[in-house]
Amino acid sequence: MTCLAEQNIATIKDAAKKLTGAKRRAFQAQVAIDYLNSKAYLAEKTFGWDRKTVTLGLNELRTGIVCVDNFKARDNKKRQQKICNWKS
Q: I need a surface site. Which of 39, 42, 49, 73 has the fewest CB within 10 A?
């Protein structure tokens, strides 16, 4: 495992925040491979990333199959429905 300076850790965390979805998982997985010997728990400890997300990214890189993010399935109701439910 390579020891990273605080400035490097901050730069990597900032870069990960600017990415979303599969690109973010791929970046986090590649950082784990390059610097943390492919250990998701070290990524969680070092960068504060979710271990499950890093593991998913590692699996996506290993298999080449990218999971699809389905944000619309999160039961995000329209604003009018939220207001009507709140009043009752």
A: 73
What pTM value is reported for the model?
0.78
Best CA proximity match to 70, nearest among 16, 21, 19: 21
Half-sphere exposure (Cβ direction) of 20: Cα atoms closer than 13 Å: 4
Helix extents (H) in 1-88: 6-17, 21-36, 40-47, 51-63, 79-87
Characterise 34 by phi-psi region: left (phi > 0), alpha (psi -120 to 50), beta (else): alpha
18 and 36 in contact (C-beta within 8 Å)?
no
